[in-house]
Specification:
Chain lengths: 163, 205, 74
């Protein structure tokens, strides 16, 4: 019993255990939220609000109060804090600095490409790959094939410039 | 460098989370429930080292497929479960919405960009959030990029919709019925799983 | 029997695994490769890769969130 508790706290869990737990939690999110789990829609709302504050666009559609009361904000915040909690429980928390500038550039451009791609396709790996396919939507399957091809392309770039 | 226990940090953080949950409960039960569930999601993602990027990238790049198999298992569970939740909610006349989004060539283009970007950034949207929580500086930069990119995508979407034609969302059960739609999707996933296992055996060195 | 070290500090997946695979090609059977990483996912991925390919491994958390992995080539 004690050993089992140790594994729950310390990990790592097998990948298939993670898959089953994630599936259950994802369904519970659907039940409570009455729509599936998504990440980038909320990030987009924050980005538009931020751009409005910086004077890059006119007036944003959403106010800060609406954003702070939106369930998407708490979904994203919860994933960050939950992952932090998981590392603290196992006494593995530490700041992990960058290796060099190359990785910073790669992260920045990778992030921009991800954000742009996710918003013109209306979803990310969670919203379209996982929950798009789970919702039996054709868009989810199209996006998944494209992500696979993109990952192959990204792998080529990575081998060429980052290795 | 010996391993130090971080139990006092753990205690402090747990109290903070508990207080925050109580605060959210005052606001609305739904927000508190959602926050608790997403904490569990983040915890599970970190503990099982779940990574959607690896699922897409590793079969071709390094020849390991354990995570890809886990993602397929996740989908195989989710399709019938979503169907059940949807049916029960419809029968009880509760509002529920599934992710059936409109699509077009920009869906494909977006997926291509997203796939390339996630390999370069070292994490997809959920992976980036999880690794920010783990304390990686690289994914903190990637999250900044994600926010910039989301804004760029948001402001260029009207032009993109002008170039590419957009079709309304296709809900597969609408065009072929529930039973065939679910069985075909499950069949595709199972074939993919078998194919991936074969691929892994051929890659063993 | 030789012991090799490989620097994968601070590198994200999949670079450490590709580097390990390349190093393994130069190593003889029974040689040991020692790696240290602060990425939880990388440490896990290396262990899973070793399991799948039948190499022996020892994974140890040497400090808070730092793992040391010893791989012995099959």
């Amino acid at each position: 019993m004690r050993e089992k508790l140790q594994i729950i706290a310390k990990g790592p869990w097998a990948y298939w255990v993670g898959a089953i737990v994630l599936a259950i939690l994802n369904i519970l999110v659907l039940v409570v939220r009455q729509e599936p789990w998504g990440i980038t829609t909320n990030i987009e709302e924050w980005s538009v609000w931020l751009a409005g504050k910086l004077g890059l666009t006119g007036n944003p559609d959403l106010t800060l109060k609406e954003l702070l009361l939106s369930d998407g904000t708490y979904l994203n915040l919860g994933v960050i804090l939950g992952a932090f909690w998981a590392t603290v429980v196992a006494s593995q928390a530490r700041f992990r600095p960058l290796k060099n500038k190359k990785f910073a550039v790669s992260a920045l451009f990778g992030g921009i490409m991800m954000g742009f791609g996710a918003r013109i396709a209306y979803g990310c790996n969670i919203g379209l790959v996982l929950n798009g396919i789970a919702s039996s939507s054709l868009a989810g399957w199209i996006f998944t094939i494209a992500v696979f091809l993109g990952a192959w392309l990204g792998g080529k770039i990575l081998l060429r410039y980052l290795l | 460098m010996l391993k130090k226990s971080q139990s006092s940090l753990n205690l402090g953080f747990s109290i903070f989370i508990l207080l925050f949950l109580i605060f959210l409960l005052q606001l609305s039960t739904k927000l508190a429930l959602i926050f608790a569930l997403s904490l569990a999601l983040g915890y599970t993602l970190q503990k099982s080292r779940f990574c959607f990027v690896a699922a897409f990238r590793d079969p071709l790049l390094v020849g390991t497929t354990k995570i890809s198999q886990a993602v397929i298992l996740l989908l195989i569970i989710s399709i019938p479960a979503f169907f059940l939740v949807f049916q029960i909610a419809s029968n009880l006349h509760l509002p529920i919405e599934l992710n059936v989004t409109p699509f077009g060539f920009h869906t494909f283009l977006g997926g291509l960009l997203f796939g390339t970007g996630m390999v370069l950034a070292g994490g997809c949207a959920s992976g980036t959030l999880m690794r920010v929580g783990e304390g990686f500086a690289m994914q903190m930069i990637a999250l900044g990029g994600l926010i910039i990119g989301a804004f760029l995508g948001n402001s260029s979407l009207p032009y993109i919709l002008n170039i590419f034609h957009e079709f309304p969302g296709v809900f597969l059960p609408d065009i072929m019925g529930w039973v065939p739609a679910i069985s075909i999707q499950l069949l595709v996933l199972i074939l993919l799983w078998l194919g991936i296992r074969k691929w892994q055996k051929s890659k063993r060195t | 029997m030789t012991t090799y070290y490989l620097d994968i500090w601070g590198e994200m997946c999949p670079i450490p695994i590709i580097k390990t695979q390349r190093k393994f090609k130069q190593m003889a059977s029974g040689d040991v490769l020692i790696l240290e990483t602060e990425h939880s996912c990388t440490s896990r991925a290396l262990v899973v890769w070793a399991q799948e390919n039948g190499h022996k491994y020892v994974e140890k958390e040497v400090s808070n969130g730092i793992w040391r992995i010893e791989l012995t080539k099959k």
